[in-house]
Design a protein that fits this description.
globular, two-stranded parallel sheet, 10 strands, 52% helix, Dehydroquinate synthase-like, alpha domain, 2 domains, Rossmann fold, six-stranded parallel beta sheet, alpha/beta, 364 residues
Length: 364
């Protein structure tokens, strides 16, 4: 009997204005912090944390993220961490910045605290770093032995993010339950290379229900940069439930198709969650779910303003050879698509993509 697992960050805190109190929440990890930030948030992060860092005696070394979670970027920050004798790493920014912080902390064998500035992916909570090549193409998954020590979600900061980023997080979270459901049904392998637990599936299901019930309303809070209960619930779903649900429940075709889609040059401007949402529709087509279920999922995509078709995602021209390659990559050895309950072939994936695109065109 295989081991079933539920894994999650040690702490998940959600509240407005957590950034100003950061010192209070990280002091337990030591006095000397390496803080990796996105360029756009660096100044704000330095200013807003100044008082609480002084109050709690924290010395912070700030490092600006270079734009790609690549081996070079990870190595650059490992060197800073060693030079400055940092006792732990804090990542403040989007998914790739946070993945870099997790990787650096892992290689340096120190704690990591994650502070997302975007609710655009479920990257903050997972024991996983997605490493890319310098040109933005997918390189590998780096499986980490532990989840982050703490994840802090500042609702005020997250409410101020661009609506497109927030919607992308909904797109990523939307797939969580359907991939976990498939993986659970087939006793597949989850993201910590064990089998999905009932708790993992339950959190994934709650993630979907929360998104369905509150995400459309939360988009109005984001539009006005306001904090509301619907916004807070949606953030908890897209960051925590989606991360824990995906990791413990497992992935299936939607994320594998996303990984294949990273090879299409036209789609480099599309966000992770936008491509995952399209991949989800392709997965549901391939699984042969009811029109009713597809209708509900696509209805949520529309309600939050996610791009629907490949053209919406930035595709200028559909080239069959290119999309056959996407289908091949989606079915690569070790890809999560093999958690599906049937043997998946590139032909099946290609057909599902074409049909999903055609189907989504009818919803515009």
């Amino acid at each position: 009997m295989s081991v079933k697992s539920i894994t999650s960050p040690m702490k998940f805190l959600i509240q407005a204005n957590l950034l100003a109190d950061l010192g209070k929440y990280i002091q337990q990890y030591g006095k000397n912090a390496l803080i990796i930030t996105d360029p756009f948030i660096q100044e704000k992060a330095q200013q807003d944390t100044q008082t609480s860092f002084a109050e709690h005696g924290i010395q912070a070394t700030f490092s600006v993220f270079g734009g790609e979670c690549s081996d070079d970027e990870i190595d650059k920050n490992k060197a800073i961490c060693q030079e400055e004798s940092c006792e732990y790493v804090v990542g403040i920014g989007g998914g790739k910045t946070l993945d870099t912080a997790k990787a650096v902390a892992y290689y340096q064998n120190v704690p990591v605290v994650i502070f997302p500035t975007l609710a655009s992916t479920d990257a903050p909570c997972t024991a996983l770093t997605v490493v890319y090549n310098a040109d933005g193409s997918f390189n590998r998954y780096l499986f980490l032995p532990n989840n982050p020590n703490a994840v802090l979600a500042d609702t005020k900061l997250l409410a101020a993010e661009p609506a497109r980023f927030f919607a992308a997080g909904v797109g990523d979270g939307l797939a969580t339950y359907f991939e976990a459901r498939t993986c659970y049904a087939t006793n597949g392998i989850n993201l910590v290379l064990m089998q999905p637990s009932l708790a993992g599936l339950g959190i994934a299901k709650m993630c979907y229900e929360t998104i369905r019930d509150f995400a459309p309303q939360a988009m109005h809070a984001v539009a006005t940069k306001s904090v509301t209960p619907a916004l807070e619930k949606t953030i908890e779903a897209t960051i925590y439930m989606s991360g824990v649900g995906a990791e413990s429940g497992g992935l299936a075709a939607a994320h594998a198709i996303h990984n294949g889609m990273t090879a299409v040059h036209d789609l480099h401007g599309a966000m992770h969650g936008e491509k995952v949402a399209f991949g989800l529709v392709a997965q549901l087509v391939m699984e042969g779910v009811s029109t009713e279920e597809l209708d509900e999922v696509i209805g949520i995509m529309k309600a939050v303003g996610l791009p629907l078709t490949l053209k919406d995602l930035g595709l200028k021209e559909f080239k069959e050879t290119e999309w056959r390659q996407v289908a091949e990559l989606s079915c690569a050895e070790g890809e999560t698509i093999h958690n599906e309950p049937f043997k998946v072939t590139p032909d099946m994936v290609y057909d599902a993509i074409v049909v999903a695109d055609k189907l989504l065109q009818t919803y515009q």
